[in-house]
Every structure is written in C-alpha cells, then in structure tokens.
Amino acid sequence: MIKKFCLIGSSFSALPLAEKISKYGHKLYVVGNDKSDPCHNFAFKSIFLDYSDLENTLQIDDINFDFIIPSSNDIAYEFAEKLSKERSIEPLSSRIPCNLIHEKDKFRNLLKKHGLPSPSILSEGDLEKIFKCGEKIIIKPIASFSGKGISILNSKKKINEAILLAKKNCKKKKYLIETYFPGSLHSISLFFKDGYQYANNFSDEFCLEYPFAVDTSFSPSRIPTKNKELILNQLNSFAKSIGYNNGMLHIQFIFNGKSHQFIECMMRCPGDMYPYMIEKSINNYDFTTYYLNSFCNFIFPFKNFKEENKIKQSYVGRKTICFSKEICFKSLRNIYDKNIEIFPLGKTGDFIKKAPYGKLGIVFFKTNSYRSLKNFLNKSNSEWIKF
Predict the structure, then answer these.
(1) pTM of this prediction?
(2) Residue 160's Cα: distance from chain center in Å?
(3) How buried is 115 (Cβ within 10 angstroms: 0-12 exposed, 13-18 middle, 19+ buried)?
C-alpha cells in the first residue's frame, strides 16, 4: 500500500532517505526552503519553508501524512517531533522528547542518574580548584551543531569570552561547563524494536580541519572487542531504563585506551551520508532502512542482521572535503581508483566557506587493508582539488 511520507530536510545528507522512500513507490513530501537541494528531485511534492522556525509547522498544508521522517540535524528532528504531536502521527508523537537527549545538560543528567560515565558538569566556583590541578575544562552551548561555540581552557583568562561564544551559538542562550576527558573520538549507532536492540555499528571519528566538528571517519572501529561489549551493555541498559523501546540512538564517546565517557547523543540520522559509509563496510547491514523503519512501524523489508556479518567487514573511510579558510573552487583532480567515490557539493567558481560552515564534497574509500585506509585518511583535502 502506498504511504505518504513527510521528510523534514532536503539537503544532500538526506539523500539516502529520499532515495529509499521513492524506490518503494511511496509519496514523498520534502520540507526544505532551498529549491536547489537534491532531495526535492525525489519529491511527489516539495514544501518550501524554513523548518528552523518551529512555528512553520502551522504553514504545512493539511495533508494526511502517514509518517514523518526527520533528516540529519537536530532542528529537523525537533520540527518533525512538533509536527507529529500536533497531528498525532505515530510513532514519533509518543517517543521520549528529543530535548532530553539532544540538549547536553539534560543528557548529562540522564547519564548521571543511570550511572553511565560522562564528563562532570561544573560550576564557576569549581574552576579554581580544577585549574590548580593542571586540568582543563570545556565550555559549550547546551544545543548547537558542527562543533560551534566550543572552547577548551586551562585557565580563567578567557572564561567570559568562551561563555559569550557558547551563548552566541545557542538558540536558548545557555551554556555548559564540564570536565575535560582526553582521548580519541568514536561513535555507536543502536537500533531498537519493541525493547530489543537488533543492530549496532561502531565507527572512529576525527576532527581535522576544525577542532570540534567531525570531518573524517571510518568503519569498522578499532576499539578492542571487550570495550565494545561493555559500551553495548551500558547503552542497552540505559535505553531500557529511560523507556526507549523503538528507534535509533547515535552516541559519541571519548576513549582513552582503557576507559570511556559518553559525550553526545542524538535520535536522528548522522549527517554527511554516514549511512553510506556503514553500508559499504558491513555486509547486509541496511542502516538507511533500519533508520526509516524506526519512524514508520517497519514497513520497509530488510534482512535480519547477524553479528557474524561483521567478521567480513571492509575498511571504509569517509572524508568531508572542507578547509580551515575560505577557498574558491576550481575543479576536482582526476582520480583513477575504483575504490574511491566522490560526491561533489560545489561547482566551479563557488566560494567555499571555511570549516565548519562550508563543504566541497564527500569522499569514500573502501579497502581490506588498514594501512591503505591510513594513507587515505592522511591525505590533505587540498590533494582532491585544483585551486
């Protein structure tokens, strides 16, 4: 039976979602105010409006949507949640409110309540003692994106400046001060159905061009198996404790070689075509379908995932081509490698803003050799283009 899907978000990051919905012949309504965005090409009808303004839910025609799908940013999820509740569209309308997960202070409190490791929230009165011990702190907005508004400090000198920066990058003008936990950055996605976690994937992440925004990642993660098992057990228990029985959780964490701390969580799809990287890495792992099914009561067919499929994983790296300064894009270099795929986002003559505001393209590389993967990850972004 043909269903009516409303996809909140029209950018390239939502392409895997739009393509899958269209592939099965459903009617796709795409919400987004940029008419040049690629998802509009798959739309039965485009709804051109700014979904960052939550009041615009009232501007959407009285269409009897069957399902509402948030794309790959927190604002899209917030808009989708509000629209779902206004129109009583399940399953999103009855799910745990997204601000409890997406807002960093509330997420920290949830983790603390359920005994999961995370950075400690600090008051300004704690800072003198912290700095005397030679430790660092992080100041960040409670809700932002792409690492905007974050500062790491080891003294009080720039506290006020860092607080102003955090508030400037938060719609609610609120910020968080917390302990600094050094280590490498990683993430895990978990999918739940009726309280059962039926699929998961880990990846390793890097912030190369801008210190707090992921622009490079790969799958599978090289974290030791015993640490992965501990993290899975903790998060499965956490999901059960908060009553999160259906949907996806994507969690970022820091790992220092021995222990870990959870730092971010989202209930929406990661951006920059993240599903494509995971699907290329793990056999018969259909990230896009798992994600869509969590918002439409599993109407899309999929194969049951088996953990043993991970034994056959290939290394897949993903690089977002971005730069620490604004550039004028000329052309991509000729790259003759069957293992490399490039998804350009800019055209000749475009001025690409500096990271994290501008992106020129996404590059994927597939290999069975970790050494080859490292060579790919170490390539400078300037090697992919002509200036």
Answers:
(1) 0.93
(2) 29
(3) exposed
| Beta-strand relationship, 67-70 and 4-8 | parallel
How many helices, marked H, and strands, marked E, lie in the chain? Answer: 10, 19
* Residue 121 DSSP one-character state: B
Find the domain containing 238 and state its range: 184-386
Task: Note whether 278 and 314 are within 8 A (CB).
Answer: no
Tokens of 243: 């009553």
**CATH code, domain with 143:** 3.30.1490.20
* Residues 75 and 124 occupy one common structural domain: no
Q: Give, for all 387 residues of the chain, the pLDDT tens digit.
A: 899 999 999 999 999 999 999 999 999 999 999 999 999 999 999 999 999 999 999 889 889 999 999 999 999 999 999 999 999 999 988 888 999 999 999 999 999 999 999 999 998 888 888 888 889 999 999 888 778 889 999 888 888 998 898 898 888 888 999 999 999 999 999 999 999 999 999 999 999 888 888 999 999 999 999 999 999 999 999 999 999 999 999 999 999 999 999 999 999 999 999 999 999 999 889 999 999 999 998 999 877 666 666 666 899 999 999 988 998 888 877 676 888 998 989 888 889 998 888 899 999 999 999 999 988 888 888 877 776
- Give the dihedral of Cα atoms 132, 133, 136, 139; nearest 10 deg: -60
User: In this structure, is residue 107 part of a structural domain?
Assistant: no
Amino acid at 231: I
At residue 68, φ and ψ (nearest 5 deg) are -120, 125
